[in-house]
Amino acid sequence: MASFWTKTSANLSVLSIFFLLLICLPPGGGQKKKENLLSEKVDQMMEWSSRRSVVRMNGDKFRRFVKAPPRNYSVIVMFTALQPQRQCSVCRQANEEYQVLANSWRYSSAFSNKLFFTVVDYDEGADVFQQLNMNSAPTFMHFPAKGKPKRADTFDLQRIGFASEQLAKWIADRTDVQIRVFRPPNYSGTIALALLVSLVGGLLYLRRNNLEFIYNKTGWAMAALCVVFAMTSGQMWNHIRGPPYAHKNPQNGQVSYIHGSSQAQFVAESHIILLLNAAITMGMVLLNEAATSKGDVGKRRIICLVGLGLVVFFFSFLLSIFRSKYHGYPYSFLIK
């Protein structure tokens, strides 16, 4: 009987201590800890954003402030490769547009702690690229405040481009945050136009007594051909995308001037295409000259053979380049 009362007394003591702990401990301790952690993360992100509009992150910062909960803010991340040895000119151009967008958000009246702009460079966070199975740059991703990123949270860079206005529209669709893009003034185009007008005006003034050159058909034809060659060779694509001049294989040192994909090109490749088109055009001009001139028959025959040789050889070369870029291209001539 004494043993029974001893056990009962011990149990009551344990229960008393348990209830005492329940009374003394503050309610929702885990929840408060979670709120404190979230507050620390938001304060840290705000502090970084106050220093620069785009927060640079390595692997540890990315996992802590972007991937790990709790988080009540959205994060836009640009995955890029800006180091000079990477030779990613597209990354530099995309970074400039990204900076314009981030600055527009940072200095707008609607700025809040609900959206942050960050960047992860490959040389500072290669583990992040590996974790996300990412093998290309630049790439823009949205990490929502709740849940995991969906397919639409990856920006379609190839189809839309990386202009700040397009990025702002995509962000508005994903976060309902409207960003009005403010670009710094750029007077280079105005200065170039003023110089061109001044040059043309000065030339006309100096030749004001002899303006017959304006009606020179050959001169206008040459100018028109230069514009056509520039446009058909892909110069505008180079201006928009900013590809490298060529590619050097780091393993064997071999330099490639022709890109192996039909979706891209090098600057050197556009120069090669321009020269090939010019040579083919020259051949066609010689053929026309041989057919329409009334000179010596032997001279006309030589001109015809030279023109035909230019057209045949360089057109064959052009077809071989098309076949190397698009392996299903069915046409070839002389050169395989």
Automatic annotation (TrEMBL):
Record's bilayer topology term: Multi-pass membrane protein
Principal location listed in the UniProt entry: endoplasmic reticulum
GO biological process: magnesium ion transport; protein N-linked glycosylation via asparagine
Alphabetical list of InterPro entries matching this protein: OligosaccharylTrfase_OST3/OST6, Thioredoxin-like_sf
GO cellular component, one term: oligosaccharyltransferase complex
Protein's UniProt keywords contain Chloroplast: no
Pathway this chain belongs to: Protein modification; protein glycosylation
Subcellular location: Endoplasmic reticulum membrane
Keywords tagged on the record: Disulfide bond, Endoplasmic reticulum, Magnesium, Membrane, Signal, Transmembrane, Transmembrane helix, Transport
Spans through the membrane: 187-206, 218-237, 272-290, 302-322
Protein family (similarity comment): Belongs to the OST3/OST6 family.
Name of the molecule in the record: Tumor suppressor candidate 3
Species, as recorded: Seriola lalandi dorsalis
Organism placement in taxonomy: Eukaryota, Metazoa, Chordata, Craniata, Vertebrata
